[in-house]
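Predict structure. Chain length: 282.
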Amino acid sequence: MPDALNSDTTFDPTYNQISVAPCSPYIGAEIGRIDLTRPLSDGQVTELRRAFIDYLVVFFRDQEISFEDHVRLAEYFGPIGAHVGVKTISNPTEDPRVRLFHYDETTPKISGDIWHTDQSCAEFPPLGSILYNHTIPPNGGGDTIFASMYAAYDALSDRMKTYLDGLTALHDGARIFGPGTPAASHPVIVRHPESGKKLIYVNDAFTAKINDVPPEESDAILRFLYAHCARPEWSFRFRWRPHSIAFWDNRCAHHYAVPDYWPAVRSGYRVQIDGVVAPVAG
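Prediction complete.
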C-alpha cells in the first residue's frame, strides 16, 4: 500500500489513510487525502479523530462543502450544539445547525478579535467548532491564530502550577454576549477528557475572576495568564484561502481572529459540537 504522505497516486475516496502534515511544533495540522463532500470511511474517521486530539486544530483546503457536508463532519465527533449567547455578531441561516459568519464594509465589529475559547461561560462548553470560509479578503488578512494551552501549562513554573491547582474561575458570558447569557465556574487548571493532559483553562474574553482570592490578586494572576497563554512560542497563524476549513478543540486551544481586513469581505459558516462533560480539575 503506498504511503499516504508521499504517494502521488490519484486520490481515491475509499482509501482509508488520510495525510497529516503538522503546521508547528505545538499546534495545528493540515489534513489531506480527504473529500469532505462525501461520507468518510470508518478508517478515515478514526485517523481524523486521532489527528484532532494530537494537534488540537486541524485544517482542510479546497473543500467546497454544503451545510449537510458541514454537519456530517461535525457529527462524527458529537451532537450539534447551539450558541448560548443572547446577542451575537454571527447570524442564523436557513439551517438552524449552521451559523453565518459574514463581514464586509457594513460590519460594525468582527467576531472573535480577543483571545478566547468558544463559550467557556456554558456549564458544558462546546467540544469543538468547525469554521468553513468560502470567501476571504483578496489581498490577504483575516488570519486566525491558535495557541496550545497544553504548552502554555507546561511552560509554567512548578510553583505557579502548585498555586493554580485547585482554584476555580468564573466565566461570564454577559461580558461578550450581553445580559442573560450563562455564567459558570470552571477549574483554572483542567485535564483534557480524551488526551489526559493538563492545560490552562481561563481566557481573556470570558473569564471574569478567579474565585476565592482577593480581587487584586485575581486581576494580577489573570493578566499574567492571558499574556502567557498568548505567547507566540506555542501559537500558529492560519492563513485562510477560499474554501478552507479550520476545526479546533475548544477544550485545549485558544484562538484569535485578526481584524485586519476591513472593509474587504470574509464570509463563511460555522457548526458547533456540543460538550458533554464539564471541564474537570487537573
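Summary: The helical segments are 42-55, 67-75, 149-154, 158-164, 174-177, 215-229.
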